[in-house]
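User: Okay, second chain of the day. Same drill as before: sequence in, structure tokens out.
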Amino acid sequence: MDNMFTEQFWMDAWVNDVAGKDTLAVHKGYSTAQFWDKASVTYNTNKNEIKSRRTTRALATLREKGLLFKGMRVLDIGCGTGMMALALAQEGALVTAMDFSSGMLDRFKADIPKALNSKITLVQQDWHQLDIRQKGWEKAFDLVLAFMSPAVASPEAFSRMIQCAAKGCAIRGWAARRQPEIFKDLWQMIMKHPLDDKPQSILYKINLLFSMGLYPDIYFDVVEWDQMVSVETETENQVSFFTKVTGKADKDIRPVIHSYLQNRAGKEKIRKKQKGVTATAVFLVDSLI
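Assistant: Same drill. Structure tokens below.
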């Protein structure tokens, strides 16, 4: 049982949990900038989706941990459309917001008020290809966060995130998720077996932190919202995903996806229900005992 208290145990458990399973294939599908470029148009279109970000609660937790103050330096890994980065900048933080998706960053840039231009630096780069030492980012930020970001879906990527923090980190991910029926149906049709995806790497991150002597404040949120997406937009999203997962050509994937979505659509729109439980963990990097 002593092995459960070592870092190596939880890193191995994390890697082995996804090895050879659908979870690894799902991660692969989400690993391209192309996918997120196409998906970016569907973000921030529903008030319940925006509410699910729980920005106010996150800011309160950061403040309680001493990780929210004017002039602080923040790195936001996988910033997406920038809702959290904007909230931190409004609190007086200097935010470096990075994402590998130009589509996401374009959405973000369009929403930056002029008053915050000097507080936000946008960086288009893939976290997996970034050399933090060469970049001068080791211990360069008071706070490093990665909320719902596939960029830190491996022990190595998570470790480099922590190395960039001088004071603390915040992470958020799915603790449990009910995939939309559309996605499960398409998976069955294309992959020829039911989807078996358990995207709970956040739980391995939390246990890894405990093994390191870092004790995060953790809270959970039940989130639920509907997305209304056009058939054409959803077709592009799913084609981008499944061509990466399967390695098949666009011409072999697109007809199957488009036909299914057309048959499912009502008034040319697809309803996608997003539901699950997110876990947020905030921790100090200098709290080792």
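The chain has a mean pLDDT of 90.

User: Thanks, on to the next one.
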